[in-house]
Design brief:
This protein is of the alpha/beta class. Helices cover about 45% and strands about 20% of the residues. The chain has one domain: Vaccinia Virus protein VP39 (Rossmann fold).
């Protein structure tokens, strides 16, 4: 993706119901599990078009990492902090035991060696440091969207939980999310698979009224996740501790 596409994608992400609400859910998880009164070093792995970088900068000193030169160059247009090239598990350009918080949002499904990637993340955390991880859920939801984004897999909660523990993490919270809209997403994915459509429609910007409605519906889960874990969903959220 060239740098102009990152600029376009960033503008979409700032308004699209999925990206906006996922960001809010992640920030809520940070508020619940990270002490903001202490100095916090944060790493956003796979920072992409930079949506999370500026939001995380309000929490602590934030650093970015991505494997794409174009993503890094664009991130530097909107974010004044340090962004370096690297990828999991073997080329992380930051020291061990340095970060109090690491976010990897829809990242490890791109990595062949996902457990080693999780171990590499853990090694960069300080003692009792935490990571927030999101991944897509359920292989039966596999579609052209996953292929377009070069995903290796989608996860069940049990599979992700097992791999997190194999990597040495202690799990503080793990839950499915995007649960309320799950039936609609399932039907759309199956319909697109039958018709052989590509995955671009998953990130198309809907009309303003539809976008607002979907954001409101999905946004209800911010409050649900504060008090319970959801039993199924399009994605999984995990909060883990070193």
């Amino acid at each position: 993706m060239n740098i102009n596409m990152y600029r376009i994608f960033f503008k979409i992400q700032q308004k699209h119901w999925w990206f906006v609400t996922k960001k809010e859910i992640v920030l809520d998880a940070i508020d619940s599990h990270v002490n903001r009164h202490e100095k916090v070093n944060i790493l956003d792995i796979g920072c992409g078009s930079g949506l999370m970088l500026c939001a995380l900068a309000d929490v602590g000193q934030t650093f970015g990492m991505d494997m794409s030169d174009e993503a890094i160059n664009f991130s530097k247009e909107i974010f004044k902090g340090q962004v370096e090239k690297g990828f999991l598990p073997d080329q992380v350009p930051y020291p061990e035991n340095f970060f109090h918080l690491i976010t990897a949002l829809d990242v490890i499904e791109h990595v062949d060696e996902d457990v080693n990637a999780l171990r590499a993340m853990r090694s960069r955390l300080t003692a009792n440091g935490k990571a927030i991880i999101t991944v897509p859920a359920y292989m039966f939801l596999w579609s052209a969207f996953d292929e377009m984004n070069e995903h290796k897999r989608r996860y069940t909660l049990t599979e992700l939980k097992t791999k997190l523990m194999q990597a040495g993490f202690t799990i503080e919270k793990i839950s499915y999310f995007n649960t309320i809209l799950f039936p609609i997403v399932f039907l759309v994915r199956m319909f697109n698979n039958i018709l052989g459509r590509d995955g671009a429609s998953d990130v198309d910007m809907p009309s303003a009224p539809v976008n607002s409605l979907l954001r409101w519906i999905f946004g209800l889960e911010k409050y649900l996740l504060k008090i319970l874990n959801l039993p199924f969903g399009v994605s999984i959220l995990a909060v883990v501790k070193k």
